[in-house]
Write a structure and sequence with these properties.
Layout lengths: L33 H14 L12 H10 L5 H14 L3 H16 L5 H19 L7 H5 L6 H10 L10 H9 L8 H11 L5 H14 L20 H6 L5
Protein name: Endonuclease III
Keywords: Endonuclease, Hydrolase, Nuclease
Length: 247
């Protein structure tokens, strides 16, 4: 008598990528229809013709600092901190004079503030000593600064009109998946997919449109599908409403 074959363990359900939160995200076929993608950005441009970062800054240095401080923090919390900080330290020289211990009281309300304080002082020193006090506005040198990764560099280069970059944060990741603009599991792969499907004319502002749409309409929990200007173009809308995860 042959021994009974051992049953294969049931396949574990696929996990959402770690950066995803909130209402369910379907895995959609990719690439999306070109006409639908064009229509999505055309409508977003109609309601947000000149989208900008919501971080407050006055020069490239304060932009780099603000974006670096915004990691795992809200723009609102960063602006509250930098409103006071940038009045006393809006250049690398002034930031270095403030020093790490002098900087901490200004940013203590922001998450991971001690590590961020070290990075801001370190990047200020490099900008001053290696770049003559001017923030380097190219990707390689930007990403070499402490606390400035690919996403931070992309935000800076895009905001200053130097490069049509797309920084994939949680908002961009979520919205891209729901709209079927991407279906990859990591921010870097989503970025690559977006560059393949977003029409060239829309690329310079696509980053901001996706962020702002995700921040105020296509929110992580209870996306506002019933009032969304691109709801009829969204392949996720029916499922989210049927599951009661949208309003």
């Amino acid at each position: 008598m042959k021994p009974a074959k051992a049953k294969k363990p049931a396949a574990k359900p696929a996990k959402r990528p770690a950066v995803m939160t909130g209402a369910a995200i379907p895995v959609l076929r990719w690439p999306p229809d070109e006409d639908r993608v064009e229509a999505i950005f055309e409508r977003l441009s109609g309601i947000m013709p000149e989208p900008k970062t919501e971080l407050d800054f006055s020069n490239p240095f304060t932009l780099v600092v603000a974006v670096a401080l915004s990691a795992q923090a809200t723009d609102v919390s960063v602006n509250k901190a930098t409103e006071r900080l940038f009045k006393v330290a809006d250049t690398p020289e002034k930031m270095l004079a403030l020093g790490e211990e002098g900087l901490i009281p200004y940013i203590a309300s922001i998450g991971l503030y001690r590590g961020k304080a070290r990075n801001v002082i370190a990047l200020s020193r490099i900008v001053l000593e290696q770049h003559g006090g001017d923030v380097p506005l190219n990707r390689a040198d930007l990403q070499a600064l402490p606390g400035v990764g690919r996403k931070t560099a992309s935000v800076v280069l895009n905001e200053l009109g130097i490069e049509a970059a797309i920084a994939v944060d949680t908002h961009v990741f979520r919205v891209s998946h729901r709209l079927g603009l991407a279906n990859a599991g990591t921010p870097d792969k989503v970025e690559a997919q977006l560059f393949k499907v977003v029409p060239e004319d829309w690329l310079p502002k696509a980053h901001h449109w996706l962020i702002l749409h995700g921040r105020y309409t296509c929110t992580a929990r209870k996306p506002k599908c019933l009032s969304c200007i691109i709801a009829d173009l969204c392949p996720s809308r029916a499922g989210l409403l049927a599951l009661g995860e949208a309003g």
